[in-house]
Amino acid sequence: MAVKDPTPRIVPVWRNFKDLTDWEALHQTRPEGDKHSDLFVSLTEGIHNFPGGFAVTTVADAFLNWARKSSVWPVTFGLACCAIEMMATFASRFDVERLGMVPWASPRHADLMIVSGTVTIKMAPMLKRIYDQMPDPKWAVSMGSCANSGGPFRHGYHVVKGVDRVIPVDVYVPGCPPPPESLLNGLLLLQDQISHFRRTGARAEPNPKVD
Amino acid sequence: MTPEQARTRIAERFPAAQAAGDAPIVVTLPVDAWAGFARFAKETLGCGYFSFLSAVDWKDEGLEVVAKIDNTDDRLSLLVKTRLGPGVSACPSLTPLYRGADWMERECYDMFGIRLEGHPDLRRILLDDDWVGHPLLKSYAVDTPHPPYR
Bridge partners of B18? Predict the structure, then answer.
């Protein structure tokens, strides 16, 4: 029996990528597709279309979403002065741990990335890489003017004009910097979004009560 | 050494230079006297402290390199300026004389594209190596696209 040679693995160099789509293709497509998720989706589709089956799937969804939103672990990713406000939000006075959020110093155990501060063009590949290291399902909060749009540095030569050009963002928190109350409100909005998460991963309609 | 004495010695040694003011003494030089003046300032005027080096883009009149060097014992400080002339981006390096000039000159190259001749390791210091252009030049467009993030 012939043994196949292992495929040589070429270490990617950032400047060899044409653009962001090129970079994402390397990091996000799996060689044989997403077999487990596809199986899960077709299974839940089957149950959902069974007479009375939607009750099972919606209850399961509600339970899973309750679990997801009750333990959103943000990765500690401070970039600028917004990080000070983020730390205040994590600390005892505002205390996000009562919402089930544990600031965690590893992207591999985290569900949420709070982009707190100015993203420079030099920092963007690292930010993208940390985001890619987080397991699905994952969320991102853009905190402050700089992360939302570039803010006061928008016309500078070195700043990414909004972090949504690098990663997908779920909640934008305005302010320069946003006080802990604002960030807390943003995190509550995010929890509300998560509780409307669908089993297929599609985003729900905005909730008129809170959005 | 008082500022008056320093100005007299500069006028004796470099007749082409103009020196004015007390703190700092603003010395305007032709480019070819740049490295020679720095050596004179270090050895004769005792300016051992290299404070900073930067540049100014005067558009059509060309670039101007500015450096501040101090004698901390006599409280003497020199602000040395030189015009490179229109379209010229070469200037002698002060790094062989002052080690503190190393990173300042690399930044000057990074931001203004001034080739500091005689610098041991002239490459970009703040921006990525594959960056196109020198952003502090007046001719650099603010909205220059930077793929992939613009």
Answer: B28
Q: How far apart are CA B126 and CA A156, in angstroms?
A: 14
Contact B149 A23 (CB under 8 A): no
CB-CB under 8 Å, A23 with B148: yes
Beta B18-20 vs B25-29: how paired, if at all? Answer: antiparallel
Residue-by-residue DSSP string for A1-37: -PPPPPPPPPPP-GGG-SSHHHHHHHHH--TT--HHH
Phi first, then psi, for residue B41 (nearest 5°) are -65, -40
Q: Which pLDDT belongs to residue A204?
A: 45
pLDDT at A210: 47
Whole-model pTM over 0.90: no
By CA distance, what is A128's nearest residue in B? B149
Distance CA B30, CA A2 (A): 75
A61 Cβ neighbours under 8 A, 6+ residues apart: A197, A198, A199
* Nearest Cα residue in chain A from B132: A157
Task: Tell me how far apart the alpha carbons of residues A12 and A4 are, in angstroms, rounded to a whole number.
Answer: 23
Q: Supply the angle between the helices A53-70 and A35-49 in degrees, to the nearest 10.
A: 130
Structure ipTM: 0.71
Residue B144, token pair as written in the block: 């220059």
7-26 of A, contacting B, C-beta below 8 A: 15, 17-23
Q: Are A41 and A71 in contact (CB under 8 A)?
A: no
The residue of chain B with its CA nearest to that of A121 is B149
